[in-house]
Amino acid sequence: SIRRERRGDRCGCLASELSFLLEPSDVIAVRERPLMLDCRVQGEEPIMVTWRKNGAPLPTSPQVQVLENGTLFIRSFQKRKEGSDADMGEYDCAAQNRYGMLVSRKAKVLLASLPKFHTHPLSMSVDEGGVARFQCQINGVPEANITWERDRVALNTTDNRYTLLPMGILQVTGVRQVDAGVFRCVATNSANTRFSHEAMLNITGRTYKEPVILSGPQNLTITVHQTAILECIATGNPRPIVSWSRLDGRSIGVEGIQVLGTGNLMISDVSLQHSGVYVCAANRPGTRMRRTALGRLVVQAPPEFLQWPQSVSKPAGGSAVFTCVAQGVPEPHLIWLKNGKVLMPGHNVKLTNNNRWVMALCSHCNNTD
Ligand SMILES: *[C@@H]1O[C@H](CO)[C@@H](O)[C@H](O)[C@H]1NC(C)=O
Ligand SMILES: *[C@@H]1O[C@H](CO)[C@@H](O)[C@H](O)[C@H]1NC(C)=O
Ligand SMILES: *[C@@H]1O[C@H](CO)[C@@H](O)[C@H](O)[C@H]1NC(C)=O
Ligand SMILES: *[C@@H]1O[C@H](CO)[C@@H](O)[C@H](O)[C@H]1NC(C)=O
């Protein structure tokens, strides 16, 4: 049978055919804690469920078991193991009955971790009324929750002069003497908690300053329906006015658009139309003096099936055609499997337009093509 990327209820096929009710999903495991990966199938009994890790059959043991409902149970998740790999990797399950074999999606299993900060906040001297920006970065799995401290006391970010952005960014606008102090960030996830180095914020007297963009938008790639935040923080005296436009001249629109802090652009529930280059401009009030910075937003859409292969009954000597159509951004790459093995073109199997297989059915053909 052919791999199906769909639910049993949408399958117009015979009840005896295999289909997945539940496939394993990506998870982040915690060290020395149990882990379960689900795999539920329906079809004509008897059905045998087996698991593979990184493409190779997974040996079972008292530590690693396949439960009666098909779930894989790892008693105590290991980071390192004597003489073998750790438990991280890509897992899939295979279900077999007398009609053939069906292989699930591959589930990525990662270990929760919180390595050291790779960016620490840097000390700054800022004119009174100006803008301060600190950033700290850490590659946590799962993503760390970042909060800030001033003089080792949790920062009160309900003050609207303080803006927290993703990527560990803290912006302070209209700084005053009371903002001076020693800043550091605190990162927390299921694996650990870490503190960054400390950075000083000094406040100096006010002087005339031309507008400067302290930090402009980064190139950003996100998935449809997520929220995009494009940073733009400008400083100067008098305080510059920040505005946004698209490089292609199209309107940014108003729906789902918000300004965070003094100039960061937030787009909620992004769609493919939001892809483009965004320009942030900082103007000195009442003049044409301006600075700009730009960043590209790329919106991607996950693959989605528009057409699935259908079951067919054909006499030997004829041919069978299976069609599969998927859409997504970027264009999805299709892989065909027969009984869990990648199908390659052969003397009796042809692939046309990358999505249609024509298979000659002959009683003497060997089973590999
Ligand atoms: C499978 O069985 C185990 C043990 O009985 C149970 O904890 C788990 O929730 C079951 N999984 C599903 C998907 O039913
Ligand atoms: C991050 O930490 C703050 C402060 O402890 C808490 O209020 C917030 O809910 C946390 N966010 C997440 C996503 O865990
Ligand atoms: C945080 O700041 C807000 C606004 O300035 C203030 O009303 C509130 O009392 C402060 N909270 C704490 C715990 O200091
Ligand atoms: C953003 O992408 C453009 C090309 O689209 C590239 O020229 C530019 O260097 C990138 N900027 C950053 C900060 O990576």
From TrEMBL:
It is found in: Membrane. PROSITE patterns: IG_LIKE. Keywords: Disulfide bond, Immunoglobulin domain, Membrane, Repeat, Transmembrane, Transmembrane helix. It comes from the Eukaryota. Residues 37-104, 115-202, 211-283, 303-369 form the Ig-like domain. It is a single-pass membrane protein. GO terms for biological process: cell-cell adhesion. InterPro entries: Ig-like_dom, Ig-like_dom_sf, Ig-like_fold, Ig_I-set, Ig_sub, Ig_sub2. Pfam families: I-set, Ig_3. One of its GO terms (cellular component) is membrane. Belongs to the immunoglobulin superfamily. DCC family. PANTHER family: IMMUNOGLOBULIN SUPERFAMILY DCC SUBCLASS MEMBER 3 ISOFORM X1-RELATED, PROTEIN SIDEKICK. This is Si:ch211-57n23.4. It comes from Cyclopterus lumpus (Lumpsucker).
